[in-house]
Every structure is written in structure tokens, then in C-alpha cells.
Design brief:
Layout lengths: L3 H8 L8 H9 L4 H24 L7 H10 L17 H12 L4 H9 L10 H12 L6 H11 L3 H16 L2 H9 L6
Length: 190
């Protein structure tokens, strides 16, 4: 049975709702409310990020639905590794990918749970990088190397790509305090 605290994390606030499949899965797993809140915050940022990049670089090719699903489920392995909700760790990554696969999520979507922490991998696609970037900028963390890798996909002169991405990320980072407060308002345990 889903806790009322998880329901609040998934429905309260002006943050965009998670994709229905992701929300249903979190409910089925009786995920910690803090995890639900975190995934909503990252998903909301991913939505704004893909929207802004799509408007500023309409020729840029990425799978918006995949990025949004990836952002909405990237940390789902923390259902199994709850200590990683409030401390460091990477065990949730592979566990999350495997969990999603067991629940019938296609591999091309489940991969984000395993890849969001490894954006430096040579095989990381733009979709992977955007999920990783959303997972950083939701709390106003700026990682120059990650931003540079995303910028390479934007095309045009490097300085121009930097300016476009920097403008978008500054705007997104401005809402970090509210997102952090939203996440902190939800308990780690139900």
C-alpha cells in the first residue's frame, strides 16, 4: 500500500508530474517519499532543459520522452539502497537498471538508472548526458566537464554553444532552493 507521504511527494507542489508509468512504479515499490520528491525535481528540470534546448536549437536531436523517463527513474535503485538517499554510493545504479528491466521497462529506458552517474563514458549519448545534467542542475550544481560534453552536441561555434547552454542552466539553477526545500520536506522513510 502506498504511503500518504509518497502520494504527497508525487502530487503536491507546482513541479510537473512524473510520467504515469514512473509514478505507478514508485507506488508499486512503495518508494521512500524523499525519492519520489527527488525524482519529481529532476524530472521537472529535465522537462525545462529539453524544452529550452529544443526551442533554442530546433535541429538538435534527442529523445525527449526517453530523457524525461530517465530523469523520472534515474535513482529508482535507491528503493533497494535507501542509505544512498542521504549518503554517497553507486550501488543503486545497476540495481535500478535491473529493477526497471524486471518490471518490464525497455532496456533503452532502463539504461538511465545505470548510466546517469557515468556521463564521462565514451558511449554516453546526448540523452544520457541530458539526464545527468538535469540530475546536477536541479540543485544548482554546475559541472564544467559535463556541460562541455553537452555543448559539443549543440553545434556551432564552441563559445556560442557555451552561451546558449549557460543561459539555460543559469535559469534552471535559479529555482534550486525551492526544489531542495521540496525534497527536504519529504521524509526518507514513509
Amino acid at each position: 500500500m502506498t504511503s500518504s507521504a509518497l502520494d504527497r511527494a508525487l502530487t503536491d507542489s507546482p513541479l510537473r508530474p512524473l510520467p504515469a508509468t514512473a509514478a505507478e512504479l514508485l507506488r508499486a515499490l512503495d518508494a521512500p517519499p524523499r525519492l519520489g520528491a527527488h525524482l519529481r525535481a529532476v524530472h521537472d528540470v529535465a522537462w525545462s532543459l529539453t524544452d529550452a534546448l529544443g526551442r533554442r536549437r530546433p535541429e538538435l536531436r534527442f529523445d525527449t520522452a526517453a530523457v524525461l523517463f530517465g530523469a523520472a527513474t534515474h535513482d529508482i535503485g535507491k528503493v533497494l539502497h535507501v542509505a544512498e538517499l542521504s549518503g554517497p554510493g553507486h550501488r543503486h545504479e545497476e540495481a535500478g537498471r535491473d529493477l526497471l528491466l524486471r518490471y518490464g521497462v525497455p532496456a533503452h529506458l532502463a539504461r538511465f538508472a545505470g548510466s546517469h552517474g557515468s556521463w564521462t563514458a565514451p558511449e554516453a549519448t546526448l540523452d544520457d548526458l541530458l539526464v545527468s545534467l538535469a540530475d546536477k542542475v536541479w540543485k544548482a550544481a554546475r559541472i564544467p566537464e559535463l556541460e562541455e560534453r553537452v555543448g559539443l552536441h549543440l553545434g556551432g561555434a564552441p563559445w556560442e554553444a557555451f552561451l546558449v547552454l549557460d543561459d539555460v542552466l543559469q535559469e534552471l539553477a535559479a529555482g534550486a532552493d525551492e526544489r531542495l526545500a521540496f525534497q527536504a520536506a519529504h521524509p526518507v522513510a514513509a
